[in-house]
Design goal:
There is one protein chain. The protein is an alpha/beta fold and about 240 residues long. The protein folds into two domains: about 180 residues, Alpha-Beta Complex (2-enoyl-CoA Hydratase, Chain A, domain 1), CATH 3.90.226.10; about 50 residues, Orthogonal Bundle (Lyase 2-enoyl-coa Hydratase, Chain  A, domain 2). The protein is built from ten helices and nine strands. It has a five-stranded parallel beta sheet, with helices on both faces. It has a four-stranded mixed beta sheet with strand order 3-5-7-8. The longest helix has 20 residues. It is globular and about 65 Å long.
Length: about 240
Protein backbone atom coordinates (compact mmCIF):
# COMPACT_ATOMS: atom_id res chain seq x y z
CA UNK A 1 0.00 0.00 0.00
CA UNK A 2 1.54 3.30 -1.10
CA UNK A 3 0.45 6.65 0.34
CA UNK A 4 0.45 8.59 -2.91
CA UNK A 5 -0.32 12.27 -2.43
CA UNK A 6 3.16 13.81 -2.01
CA UNK A 7 1.88 17.25 -2.99
CA UNK A 8 -0.11 17.22 0.27
CA UNK A 9 2.72 15.51 2.17
CA UNK A 10 0.63 12.31 2.17
CA UNK A 11 -1.72 13.84 4.72
CA UNK A 12 -4.36 11.53 6.18
CA UNK A 13 -7.36 13.32 4.76
CA UNK A 14 -10.76 11.69 5.16
CA UNK A 15 -10.45 10.37 1.59
CA UNK A 16 -6.94 9.01 2.27
CA UNK A 17 -8.11 7.28 5.46
CA UNK A 18 -11.08 5.74 3.67
CA UNK A 19 -8.80 4.50 0.89
CA UNK A 20 -6.29 3.14 3.40
CA UNK A 21 -9.04 1.24 5.23
CA UNK A 22 -10.28 -0.23 1.96
CA UNK A 23 -6.77 -1.29 0.90
CA UNK A 24 -5.98 -2.87 4.27
CA UNK A 25 -9.12 -4.99 4.02
CA UNK A 26 -8.65 -5.91 0.36
CA UNK A 27 -8.43 -9.70 -0.07
CA UNK A 28 -7.43 -10.04 3.59
CA UNK A 29 -8.98 -13.52 3.72
CA UNK A 30 -7.36 -14.63 0.46
CA UNK A 31 -4.81 -17.42 0.64
CA UNK A 32 -2.17 -15.48 -1.29
CA UNK A 33 -2.00 -12.40 0.97
CA UNK A 34 0.70 -13.00 3.57
CA UNK A 35 2.07 -9.59 4.56
CA UNK A 36 1.17 -5.92 4.01
CA UNK A 37 3.75 -3.17 3.55
CA UNK A 38 2.76 0.49 3.90
CA UNK A 39 5.11 2.96 2.20
CA UNK A 40 4.84 6.43 0.70
CA UNK A 41 5.84 8.57 -2.26
CA UNK A 42 7.93 11.71 -1.84
CA UNK A 43 10.17 13.05 0.93
CA UNK A 44 7.46 12.88 3.63
CA UNK A 45 6.09 9.52 4.74
CA UNK A 46 2.98 11.12 6.23
CA UNK A 47 2.35 14.54 7.76
CA UNK A 48 -0.69 13.49 9.77
CA UNK A 49 -4.20 14.84 9.42
CA UNK A 50 -5.04 17.33 6.68
CA UNK A 51 -5.41 20.48 8.78
CA UNK A 52 -7.65 22.08 6.15
CA UNK A 53 -10.28 19.49 7.16
CA UNK A 54 -9.96 20.47 10.81
CA UNK A 55 -10.62 24.18 10.45
CA UNK A 56 -13.74 25.94 11.68
CA UNK A 57 -15.10 25.81 8.11
CA UNK A 58 -16.12 22.20 8.85
CA UNK A 59 -18.50 21.31 11.65
CA UNK A 60 -18.00 19.08 14.69
CA UNK A 61 -19.67 16.15 12.92
CA UNK A 62 -17.04 16.22 10.17
CA UNK A 63 -14.20 16.54 12.68
CA UNK A 64 -15.58 13.57 14.60
CA UNK A 65 -15.78 11.53 11.42
CA UNK A 66 -12.12 12.21 10.62
CA UNK A 67 -10.86 11.15 14.04
CA UNK A 68 -13.21 8.16 14.28
CA UNK A 69 -12.11 6.65 10.96
CA UNK A 70 -8.50 7.34 11.86
CA UNK A 71 -8.90 5.40 15.11
CA UNK A 72 -10.66 2.64 13.17
CA UNK A 73 -7.76 2.35 10.70
CA UNK A 74 -5.12 2.31 13.46
CA UNK A 75 -6.89 -0.41 15.42
CA UNK A 76 -7.68 -2.33 12.22
CA UNK A 77 -3.96 -2.73 11.54
CA UNK A 78 -3.52 -4.69 14.76
CA UNK A 79 -6.75 -6.66 14.28
CA UNK A 80 -5.79 -7.90 10.81
CA UNK A 81 -4.60 -11.52 10.69
CA UNK A 82 -1.76 -10.38 8.42
CA UNK A 83 1.50 -8.79 9.68
CA UNK A 84 1.72 -5.11 8.65
CA UNK A 85 5.08 -3.42 8.04
CA UNK A 86 5.67 0.33 7.79
CA UNK A 87 8.48 1.19 5.35
CA UNK A 88 9.44 4.73 6.35
CA UNK A 89 11.67 6.97 4.27
CA UNK A 90 11.27 10.56 5.41
CA UNK A 91 9.25 12.47 7.98
CA UNK A 92 6.33 10.90 9.88
CA UNK A 93 4.47 13.41 12.03
CA UNK A 94 1.33 13.44 14.20
CA UNK A 95 -1.13 10.87 12.83
CA UNK A 96 1.64 9.78 10.43
CA UNK A 97 3.78 8.93 13.45
CA UNK A 98 0.70 7.23 14.91
CA UNK A 99 0.47 5.11 11.76
CA UNK A 100 4.06 3.93 12.14
CA UNK A 101 3.55 3.16 15.84
CA UNK A 102 0.39 1.18 15.02
CA UNK A 103 2.10 -1.16 12.55
CA UNK A 104 3.45 -4.50 13.72
CA UNK A 105 6.94 -3.83 12.36
CA UNK A 106 8.55 -0.59 11.17
CA UNK A 107 11.66 -0.38 9.01
CA UNK A 108 13.11 3.10 8.58
CA UNK A 109 15.81 4.69 6.49
CA UNK A 110 18.48 6.76 8.19
CA UNK A 111 16.77 9.92 6.90
CA UNK A 112 13.46 9.14 8.62
CA UNK A 113 12.25 11.33 11.48
CA UNK A 114 9.28 11.03 13.82
CA UNK A 115 7.40 13.80 15.62
CA UNK A 116 4.11 14.75 17.25
CA UNK A 117 4.17 18.55 16.80
CA UNK A 118 0.47 19.24 17.29
CA UNK A 119 1.13 21.09 20.55
CA UNK A 120 2.94 23.79 18.56
CA UNK A 121 -0.25 24.68 16.66
CA UNK A 122 -2.62 24.32 19.60
CA UNK A 123 -3.88 20.82 18.78
CA UNK A 124 -2.34 18.31 21.20
CA UNK A 125 -1.67 14.92 19.59
CA UNK A 126 -3.99 13.02 21.91
CA UNK A 127 -4.95 10.25 19.48
CA UNK A 128 -1.37 9.71 18.23
CA UNK A 129 -0.43 9.50 21.93
CA UNK A 130 -2.43 6.26 22.22
CA UNK A 131 -0.17 4.43 19.77
CA UNK A 132 2.95 6.32 20.81
CA UNK A 133 2.43 5.59 24.51
CA UNK A 134 2.15 1.88 23.71
CA UNK A 135 5.36 1.83 21.65
CA UNK A 136 7.69 4.14 23.58
CA UNK A 137 8.74 4.58 27.20
CA UNK A 138 6.34 7.03 28.85
CA UNK A 139 8.87 9.82 29.38
CA UNK A 140 10.12 9.64 25.80
CA UNK A 141 6.57 9.73 24.47
CA UNK A 142 5.64 12.67 26.69
CA UNK A 143 8.73 14.64 25.69
CA UNK A 144 7.72 14.20 22.04
CA UNK A 145 4.13 15.19 22.84
CA UNK A 146 5.02 18.18 25.03
CA UNK A 147 7.75 19.66 22.81
CA UNK A 148 6.91 18.54 19.29
CA UNK A 149 10.62 17.90 18.73
CA UNK A 150 11.41 15.03 16.34
CA UNK A 151 13.21 11.78 17.03
CA UNK A 152 15.88 10.77 14.56
CA UNK A 153 15.69 7.31 13.04
CA UNK A 154 18.42 6.10 15.39
CA UNK A 155 16.65 7.54 18.43
CA UNK A 156 13.40 5.93 17.27
CA UNK A 157 15.22 2.61 17.03
CA UNK A 158 16.82 3.01 20.44
CA UNK A 159 13.43 3.69 22.07
CA UNK A 160 11.50 0.98 20.20
CA UNK A 161 9.36 3.00 17.80
CA UNK A 162 10.94 1.25 14.80
CA UNK A 163 12.35 -2.25 14.38
CA UNK A 164 15.32 -1.52 12.16
CA UNK A 165 17.19 1.40 10.59
CA UNK A 166 19.09 1.01 7.33
CA UNK A 167 20.67 3.30 4.70
CA UNK A 168 18.11 4.71 2.28
CA UNK A 169 19.38 2.57 -0.59
CA UNK A 170 18.88 -0.59 1.51
CA UNK A 171 15.34 0.18 2.71
CA UNK A 172 13.50 -1.77 0.02
CA UNK A 173 15.88 -4.72 0.28
CA UNK A 174 15.58 -4.96 4.09
CA UNK A 175 11.79 -4.61 4.05
CA UNK A 176 11.46 -7.35 1.45
CA UNK A 177 13.88 -9.56 3.38
CA UNK A 178 11.59 -9.38 6.43
CA UNK A 179 8.51 -9.83 4.25
CA UNK A 180 9.89 -12.94 2.56
CA UNK A 181 10.80 -14.43 5.92
CA UNK A 182 7.23 -13.89 7.15
CA UNK A 183 5.93 -15.57 4.00
CA UNK A 184 7.86 -18.74 4.86
CA UNK A 185 5.62 -19.35 7.88
CA UNK A 186 2.07 -20.67 8.15
CA UNK A 187 -0.57 -18.00 7.63
CA UNK A 188 -2.94 -19.58 10.16
CA UNK A 189 -0.22 -19.85 12.81
CA UNK A 190 0.85 -16.23 12.28
CA UNK A 191 -2.77 -15.05 12.51
CA UNK A 192 -3.24 -16.89 15.79
CA UNK A 193 0.05 -15.60 17.14
CA UNK A 194 -0.58 -11.97 16.20
CA UNK A 195 -4.06 -11.92 17.72
CA UNK A 196 -2.75 -13.55 20.90
CA UNK A 197 0.15 -11.13 21.23
CA UNK A 198 -2.11 -8.09 21.22
CA UNK A 199 -4.58 -9.72 23.63
CA UNK A 200 -1.97 -10.69 26.20
CA UNK A 201 -0.02 -7.42 26.14
CA UNK A 202 -2.77 -5.59 28.03
CA UNK A 203 -3.33 -8.35 30.60
CA UNK A 204 -1.70 -8.94 33.96
CA UNK A 205 1.01 -11.63 34.07
CA UNK A 206 -1.09 -14.49 35.46
CA UNK A 207 -3.99 -13.84 33.09
CA UNK A 208 -1.62 -13.57 30.14
CA UNK A 209 -0.01 -16.91 30.92
CA UNK A 210 -3.38 -18.64 31.41
CA UNK A 211 -4.63 -17.33 28.10
CA UNK A 212 -1.46 -18.07 26.12
CA UNK A 213 -1.24 -21.57 27.62
CA UNK A 214 -4.67 -22.28 26.16
CA UNK A 215 -3.59 -20.79 22.83
CA UNK A 216 -0.47 -22.98 22.69
CA UNK A 217 -2.71 -26.03 23.10
CA UNK A 218 -5.05 -24.66 20.42
CA UNK A 219 -2.04 -24.09 18.14
CA UNK A 220 -1.21 -27.79 18.42
CA UNK A 221 -4.66 -28.69 17.09
CA UNK A 222 -4.00 -26.76 13.87
CA UNK A 223 -2.89 -28.83 10.91
CA UNK A 224 0.10 -26.52 10.43
CA UNK A 225 1.03 -26.86 14.09
CA UNK A 226 1.47 -30.62 13.74
CA UNK A 227 3.00 -30.33 10.26
CA UNK A 228 5.69 -27.99 11.55
CA UNK A 229 6.62 -30.30 14.42
CA UNK A 230 6.69 -33.37 12.17
CA UNK A 231 8.83 -31.55 9.61
CA UNK A 232 11.29 -30.49 12.33
CA UNK A 233 11.55 -34.07 13.65
CA UNK A 234 11.95 -35.44 10.11
CA UNK A 235 14.48 -32.72 9.20
CA UNK A 236 12.53 -31.46 6.20
CA UNK A 237 10.81 -28.28 5.11
CA UNK A 238 7.18 -28.01 6.28
CA UNK A 239 4.35 -27.92 3.77
CA UNK A 240 1.83 -25.39 5.04
CA UNK A 241 -1.88 -25.66 4.39
CA UNK A 242 -1.99 -22.04 3.13
Amino acid sequence: IILSNPGRRNALSLAMLQSLRQDLLHDVKGKELRVIVISAEGPVFCSGHDLKELSSEDDVKHHSQVFEICAEVMTLIQKLPIPVIAKVNGLATAAGCQLVASCDIAVASEKAQFATPGVNIGLFCSTPAVALGRSLPRKVALEMLFTGEPLSAREALMHGLVSKVVPEDKLEEETMKISRKICESSKSVLALGKATFYRQITQDLDTAYRMTTQVMVENLTLRDGQEGIEAFIQKRQPVWSH
